[in-house]
Amino acid sequence: STKKGKFSNKNLMFTGGFKKISRSEAKVLAEKNGAKVMGTISKNLNILVVGESKPTKNKVEKAKELNIQIIKEKEWYKILNIWAVSFEVNQFFIVHKFFKVFENHRVVII
To answer: What is the DSSP code string of 37-50?
Structure first.
């Protein structure tokens, strides 16, 4: 079943670590937005999302060779229209408990 979303019918892959969310959270967000998350680079890949922390150079180079669209972490957040919200440390724990409530509003806790 194909979900409608910002990445409908797109094959997507991540490389590098993300500053604001974990890789597993990134995968869930991508899938919720209709993407199929792939583990290897091939000509079937549409988008490579490059995290700011230690992206794999080989993956980036191979994506360039195959003319795959490469987007950086910040651009990815913009496409998904994610709001970045900063909280004080003591508020973080309160908010974290209610993360499911925030999930529908696509709030990322930094």
So the answer is: E-SS--TT--EEEE
Which residues, including other chains, have CB under 8 Å from residue 7's CB and lie 6 or more apart?
A: 30, 33, 34, 35, 47
Residues 2-23 have pLDDT tens digits of 557 788 889 999 999 988 788 8
pTM, entire model:
0.71
Nearest by Cα to 21 from 69, 63, 80: 80
| Per-state percent for the chain, helix, strand, coil, to nearest 5 | 35, 20, 40
Query: What are the tens digits of pLDDT across the range 41-70?
Result: 999 999 999 998 888 899 999 999 999 999
CA 51 to chain centre: 8
**Exposed, middle or buried, 102 (CB in 10 Å: 0-12/13-18/19+)?**
middle
